[in-house]
Every structure is written in structure tokens, then in C-alpha cells.
Write a structure and sequence with these properties.
311 residues, alpha/beta, 13 helices, binds flavin mononucleotide, NMO, NAD(P)H-dependent flavin oxidoreductase, oxidoreductase activity, flavoprotein
Length: 311
């Protein structure tokens, strides 16, 4: 109940941030079902045109749209700047401004080294924002560091997860109990959680809630293309492959683009593959859980099933 109280939600089921694959409709559906919806990078956008100003303005509009669709709490994913990635520093300030101006009160920070984002976390905390931190490559040590830095909760992601993979090959099953033993703040489990059994396992290992990505791509409300949702429903876990991209390794479905060796060029390939449904040129990045997902369902159904683990 600690996490529910902290966030003002009924059930500790959090829809994960997924670049291009979040929207006001999905976030509101999850929040209206009692969980916590999240707007991640490029939420609600359909094209990659425009510079920083227009991307940030679109983000503001998506926040406003979400507020029209739900009166319940929802969160924003704020990417902490990553050393060596110039563009991440260019977006950091304008995005923070929007979050503070729009008075969003729950922010999920994610990054590769929390110490690099300390000043941004401090500003969020000073503004009274609840901060949940997700380290891309979590360890017991960096979880303790996040707690010391004053974040309110952390998300611990196992190697099963979709999106950019942790540089450490540690599964949710082994990492999560080590972290829940090591910190006092609520720990939210991510990576491979897609049904009631996996959510129950996370709870048994001490998780206060679950952070779920791939399962929410295969919902009616997700902006992913229909052929992407069907590809996830059809794929088996053993058919997934890992590829290298400039931003890190990702696990993907072996679509035509991957078989032709075209998958590793740039991050825009997620938009091409998953939003536009162009499986000849883009990629579909998913979690190992994709093999267990057998149908497209409503976001409300998914929240409801996972919530039983915390009843
Ligand atoms: C298509 C896709 C895009 C993602 N994009 C982001 C992102 O922009 N920022 C982020 O912090 N995590 C991102 N992630 C990771 C998710 O937030 C989450 O940690 C992960 O999906 C949890 O594992 P699961 O897919 O097994 O549920 C992405 C995941 C997927 C599948």
C-alpha cells in the first residue's frame, strides 16, 4: 500500500515509458483503470519532423490531452542527460521547464548514471515532484545511490525487458530480491512482467509494484501499428534476437529488416517498425515476455489482471 499511497493510485501497476509508443489515450486508460499511465518520449507523435521546440510543445499538448481524458494521476518519463549524447543535453532543460510549468507531480527519471542527473533530480524534488528513478543498467550499488540521492522509489529492470538492455546480463529473478533487501524505499519491478503469475513473483520478491512495457504494446489503446501487435502475439520467446544499435543493445523480433541486416542503424527504426508498421526497414523491440502474450486486450483488462497480484 505504500506505493499506492505515495502516488495516489489504487493498484501499483505502472505502464512503462516507451519511445513513440505512449500516448494520452493509453496513459489515461491505465490511470482510469486504477494504475499509473506514463507519457514517454514522443508520446502521441506520428512524425519525427521538427526541432526541439516543436517536440517539447507537442509533449505539452499531450500532457493537456491526458488531463482531458483522466482526472487520475499519471507520470512523465524524463530522460536524464547521457554523457557523450549531445542531444540529450539539448532536450534536458526545455523538457524540465514543461514538466514544471504544467505542474506534473510524478516523474520517472531514467538514465545511465544517476550522478550525472543529480541537479535535475534536485530541481524536481525542490518543486515537490515525486521522483521515481530507473537506472538503465541497475545494480545493488546504484540502487543504494539513488536512495541516498533522495528519490522516492526506484524501478529495477531485469535483462528480460524490452527497450535498451542493461549492460549487465542480470535477470529480474536474481536482481530484484537483492535490491529489495538493500534499500528501504519502494522498489518497482520491471522486465518480463506480463500476467498475474509474473506480477505475483515480483511481489513475492519484495516489489511494491510492477512497471510493464511490452504487455501494454499489445493493447487496443496502444499507438503501435496493428501488424506490430500481431507480430508480438505471434512470436515465441526463443525466436527473439539481440542486436547492437548506437544507443545500446536491444532485443527484437527477427523481422525482414533484421534478417537483411538493416536493423542496427539508428533509433528511428523503432518508430518505423513499431508505429508505422514498416517491418522491412524498422525494428520491433520487445521483452522476453512477448512469447507469453497471446492476444490483444484492453489496457483496463491488463491492469485488472496484474492488480490481483497486489490485492
Ligand atoms: C519499444 C520500447 C521502447 C522503450 N523506450 C523507453 C524509453 O524511451 N525510455 C525508457 O526509460 N525506457 C524505455 N523502454 C523500457 C521500458 O520503459 C520498460 O523498462 C520495459 O519495457 C520493461 O520491460 P517489459 O517490456 O518486459 O515489460 C522501452 C521499452 C520498449 C519495449
Amino acid at each position: 500500500m505504500r506505493l499506492q499511497k505515495l502516488l495516489g493510485i489504487e493498484t501499483p501497476v505502472i505502464q512503462a515509458s516507451m519511445v513513440w509508443l505512449n500516448s494520452a489515450e493509453l496513459a489515461a486508460a491505465v490511470s482510469n483503470a486504477g494504475g499509473l499511465g506514463v507519457l514517454g518520449p514522443n508520446a502521441g507523435r506520428k512524425n519525427a519532423n521538427g526541432g526541439i521546440a516543436s517536440t517539447v510543445e507537442d509533449f505539452r499538448q499531450e500532457i493537456k490531452k491526458t488531463r482531458q481524458l483522466t482526472h487520475k494521476p499519471f507520470a512523465i518519463n524524463y530522460l536524464l542527460p547521457i554523457e557523450g549524447v549531445e542531444i540529450s543535453f539539448q532536450y534536458a532543460e526545455p523538457l524540465l521547464e514543461v514538466i514544471l510549468q504544467e505542474k506534473v507531480n510524478i516523474v520517472i527519471t531514467s538514465g545511465k548514471d544517476i550522478t550525472k542527473g543529480e541537479r535535475y533530480i534536485k530541481r524536481l524534488k525542490e518543486a515537490g515532484v515525486i521522483v521515481i528513478h530507473r537506472e538503465i543498467s541497475p545494480t545493488v550499488a546504484n540502487s543504494i545511490l539513488a536512495e541516498k540521492m533522495g528519490v522516492d522509489a526506484i524501478i529495477v529492470t531485469g535483462h528480460e525487458a524490452g527497450g535498451h538492455l542493461s549492460e549487465h546480463r542480470i535477470s529480474t529473478l536474481t536482481l530484484l530480491p537483492q535490491v529489495t533487501d538493500a534499500v528501504k524505499i519502494p522498489v518497482i519491478a520491471a522486465g518480463g512482467i506480463y500476467n498475474q503469475k509474473t506480477a505475483k513473483a515480483a511481489r513475492a520478491m519484495g516489489a511494491a509494484g510492477v512497471y510493464v512495457g511490452t504487455r501494454f504494446i499489445t493493447t487496443f489503446e496502444s499507438p503501435a501499428s496493428l501488424n506490430t501487435k500481431q507480430a508480438i502475439v505471434n512470436v515465441l520467446s526463443q525466436e527473439l534476437v539481440e542486436i547492437n544499435t548506437p544507443a545500446g543493445d536491444v532485443r527484437v523480433i527477427a523481422t525482414e529488416s533484421i534478417l537483411a541486416g538493416r536493423g542496427d542503424s539508428e533509433v528511428g527504426i523503432i518508430k518505423k517498425g513499431m508505429l508505422d508498421g514498416d517491418h522491412l526497414n524498422g525494428v520491433i523491440t520487445v521483452s522476453e515476455s512477448a512469447g507469453g502474450i497471446e492476444e490483444i486486450r484492453s489496457a483496463k483488462d491488463v491492469v485488472c489482471e496484474l492488480s490481483f497480484a497486489f490485492a
